[in-house]
Amino acid sequence: MAPQPTTQQGDSPPRSAFLLAFDVRRERPAGRRELGYLLRAAALAELMLSGSLADESGKARAVTAPASPGPLQAAVWEQISGSPPRSWRSWIRKDRSQAYRLVRDELEAARLVRVERRRILMFPVERVTPRKPYLSRRLAEQVSRAVHGGRPVSRLSQDLRVLAALAAAARLKTVLPAREWRRHRRRVEELSAPIEPITTALRKNVEATAGADATG
Predict the structure, then answer these.
(1) What is the pLDDT of residues 81-95, one digit of tens each?
(2) How far, in Å, are 28, 91, 100, 111 from residue 94 at the CA level?
(3) pTM listed for this prediction
(4) Is 17 in contact with 166 (CB distance < 8 Å)?
């Protein structure tokens, strides 16, 4: 049997999602608000698939503490375990800036991104660039192939399947143009099945934000 395509070994869904969202040509990540949604959803997906969270009538319910969570996963777990069940959409919207910082710092410590900090007119400004752009390109290629359907979903690694489902819900332009995402709706539904409550919530948050910006 041929080996399953997989994402970069050792990377969690939030770290892979951050790298996937890099526009390598422009040397910058996707918009921070949308990226914050994506990172929170990736952490929720990891916790759900590991059995730490469960879906309860459209709400996230804490089940059991994760064994060795990353910084963002630990923060999300602490929030959910200390609160009554709330909708997935509300947990994806919560503390998006914190999600960005936690994953950025994790990638910086792993020397996968470079963070340049300075001040312009007394305001702090930062520039985040990938140290290994080929990782972002490789992830985009793997996710694109997963969405186009060259291999049965059952033969994809769980990491790749989750990343592709999240990228589709966020309509990541670093993978496919917006119009092309719509052409693969059935494949995306199949990829998203194990984490459907989360991908649906992510898609609705992204669409609501885009709608508000358009009318804003």
Answers:
(1) 999 999 999 999 999
(2) 23, 5, 12, 27
(3) 0.90
(4) yes
